[in-house]
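So, does this match?
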Amino acid sequence: KLIKLANNENPYGPPEGVVKAMNDAWKYGNRYAAPDGGIIDAIAEHHHVKPENVLIGCGSSEILKIVDDAFLPDHKLVVGVEPTYETVYRFATNSKAKAIAIPLTKTYDANIKEIIRVTKLNARDVGVVYICNPNNPTGRIVPKDEIKLLLDSIPGDIPVFIDEAYHHFVDDPNYEPSVKYVIEGRKVIIARTFSKIAALAGMRLGYAVAPKEIIDQLRPFVMAYNTNVIVKFGGVASLKDTANEARIKQLNKQIRDRVTNELKAMGYEVIPSQSNFFMVNVKKDVTAVAEEFLKKGFVVGRKFPPMTEWLRVSVGTDEEMKGFMKTFKEVFPAQPTAQTKAGN
């Protein structure tokens, strides 16, 4: 059996209450426009917005796709950082738009001032600015004051798309969710997903929160009947289960911090993460490293150019991560120190 530490999933699965809500919804499976459990209203209430500000998708991946369809026609530009969740750039390329990807800073953070400069310089051609917060694959946040600086500094008619897929794992006080800017009426689109902390990755449910005029622009690009009835009921139950969310957040932090501290003690550089994954510098191409882990039963993260020697590892259960560390030490055996060599 393979241990999956590659896709930033919740390794514990959905809680009992969410499973029950989904099982109870099977009776509606024969209808296209089945009862939806009140998912739109539940999301709107959760974020203190109106139902007209919410659009659901087949995971947040569909939200990324329809934002591309709506705002990145031929020759338009998307501005963001590199590396980040590259799907947005791939969608842009497919629609013949172009990406301006700004390198991360020396501390692996988004260079917001450079994003502002490039966006203003190309203002006529920029279709959307994309911010993944926390960023995937680094796990680094964009602090709340820098989000505000970005929104205050670029032309107000350029949409800013903030992907908050990993929002629930953050405990840094310098971070805050950006839904408040939607409530203010700014041209901001927030993407959220039930795939991560809610453990519904295989069920496919995500959503956008945005001003009504933007939701109206996005809606024509949504595929009809894009989300199944089962996950809608599961999503509503998940939003209510704040206790399980807090439990998963604490477990993730506890295990992540233990593993990353152990790696640092072994002499490896680890980027401080605010998410359910982390990056460690293994000082060799990660494609070959991933193959070595696979031989030993572990699926670990793919390559994220230009950080080709940084391995992204999803945080698994306590048992899985103990197995990961054991395997890591087999793949990267400790090198004798100078003192040990001299003693020999």
The longest strand covers residues 126-132.
